[in-house]
Amino acid sequence: MKKLLIVFIIFIGICKLNSQESINNYKYVVVPLQFDFQKGQNQYRLNTLIKQLFEQAGFEVYYDNKNLPKDLFDNRCLALYADVKEAEGAFLYTKVEILLNDCNDNLIMKSREGLSKEKQFKDAYKIAAREAFKTLKLSGYSYQPDKINSNEQVEVVEQPVGIEAESKKKLTSDKTSKEEITSVTPNKTQENDSDLNQKPTYYAQKINMGYQVVDATPKIIMVLLSTDAEHIFIVKNKNAVVYKEDGFWIYSENDGAKQKTEFIVIKF
């Protein structure tokens, strides 16, 4: 019985060590400006708090609508992607949990539920979030590069999401250069500065035979298949192409019944 107990303790220790090593493989944490349960960006300043907590734990932290450092821009698997979920059925109290996912949306770490009975939501969410964050046990975090952060990309089999639907769902405030300016319709002169600051920015990641295009979440938007032409790509599983013209990237789709053409922002 004593030997069994010792083996069990060693096993638990190894599991904790492996978990810590896994966390240490990530250099950054990306925090969204709005979680699913929030009614607006940074509601109750909860997103600011989450960013500060991860910074205090030793991570470099960025909001998902800001320009990213070059190494993270080139390889989004260097980061963990934070999310906060509100527990259902919490009638007389506020209860949340914090999740960390990798670049492929795999769950890496999940906190216990943080609880608060404060009546003021602004205080309640912050208290609950702090309690949840404590259970992540990140005090020993120290970035250590690993194979998980290599630049190799796995070919994607997920169905791409329509550009138009994705654009409505997520807006970013990235400032773009002239080469990256886009518009909803293929007329560059219709854009103004206010519109440009609200257009989503997508990121191209190299894969076999082309690129996978993701947003800042990162969620896969589409897969581009290379052609013999340098700046022309076929959109996988779509009757569409993406091509570059006069410094602008253009998405053009024709399914035989209707045609859609729009400018998009893609950073390669």
Structural description of this entry:
The protein has helices spanning 2-24, 46-56, 70-74, 121-134, 163-169, 193-196, and strands at residues 28-31, 60-63, 79-86, 94-101, 107-110, 114-116, 201-207, 210-214, 220-226, 232-235, 240-245, 248-254, 259-267. The chain has 268 residues and is of the alpha+beta class. It folds into 2 domains: 2-149, Rossmann fold; 163-267, no CATH class. The strands form 2 sheets. It has a 7-stranded mixed beta barrel. Strands 1, 2, 3, 4, 5 and 6 form a 6-stranded mixed beta sheet that branches. Helix 2 runs parallel beside helix 4. The longest helix has 23 residues, at 2-24. It is elongated and about 60 Å long. Mean pLDDT is 77; it is low at 1-21, 150-186 and 188-196.
Q: What layout of secondary structure does this protein have?
A:
Elements: H1 2-24, E1 28-31, H2 46-56, E2 60-63, H3 70-74, E3 79-86, E4 94-101, E5 107-110, E6 114-116, H4 121-134, H5 163-169, H6 193-196, E7 201-207, E8 210-214, E9 220-226, E10 232-235, E11 240-245, E12 248-254, E13 259-267
Parallel strand pairs: 1-2, 1-3, 7-13
Antiparallel strand pairs: 3-4, 4-5, 4-6, 7-8, 8-9, 9-10, 10-11, 11-12, 12-13
Helix content: 10-25%
First CA to last CA: what distance?
59 Å
| % residues in beta strands | 25-35%
From the spread of the alpha carbons, the general shape counts as elongated
CATH fold title of the largest domain: Rossmann fold
Supply the CATH class of the largest domain.
Alpha Beta
Mean pLDDT: 77
CATH architectural arrangement of the largest domain:
3-Layer(aba) Sandwich
Output the strand order for the largest sheet: 7-8-9-10-11-12-13
Largest sheet: 7 strands, mixed, barrel
Order of helices and strands: HEHEHEEEEHHHEEEEEEE
Number of domains: 2
The total count of helices amounts to 6
Flag low-confidence runs: 1-21, 150-186, 188-196
Structural class: alpha+beta
Q: Radius of gyration over alpha carbons?
A: 21 Å
The beta-strand count equals 13
